[in-house]
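Dear H.,

Thanks for agreeing to be a second pair of eyes. The structure we're designing against is below in token form, covering all 96 positions.
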């Protein structure tokens, strides 16, 4: 069973927090299209890593939540940290 992992400071400083249901981050976007485009990229990443957060798209906002490891009883493990870090790479490419 994977071991629990502390949220790295690099993710904390980018807005990631730990909630009862796993890691979460809200990303501000300029409009609905931008939020949707981020969601698609995160979805492709999630498929590649076989690890799937909840994604909520709304006007000007993307929320990634529920990022936890089921096999470990819903705690945060290296798999969750890995996905969050890769998602940050994607977000940073498009920052203005
Ligand atoms: N997504 N968030 C999340 N957590 C998991 O543990 C997880 C997943 N997607 C697929 C997945 N696990 C599979 O690896 C296992 O259910 C086989």
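And this is the sequence the design step returned. I haven't edited it by hand at all.
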């Amino acid at each position: 069973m994977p071991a629990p992992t502390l949220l790295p400071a690099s993710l904390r400083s980018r807005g990631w927090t730990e909630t009862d249901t796993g890691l979460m981050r809200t990303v501000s976007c300029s409009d609905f299209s931008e939020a949707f485009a981020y969601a698609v990229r995160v979805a492709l990443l999630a498929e590649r890593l076989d690890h799937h957060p909840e994604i909520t798209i709304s006007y000007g906002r993307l929320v990634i939540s529920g990022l936890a490891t089921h096999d470990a009883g819903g705690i945060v493990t290296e798999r969750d940290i890995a996905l969050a870090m890769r998602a940050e790479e994607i977000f940073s490419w498009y920052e203005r």
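Two observations from my side: The longest helix spans residues 32-49. The chain has one domain: 16-94.

Warmly,
E.
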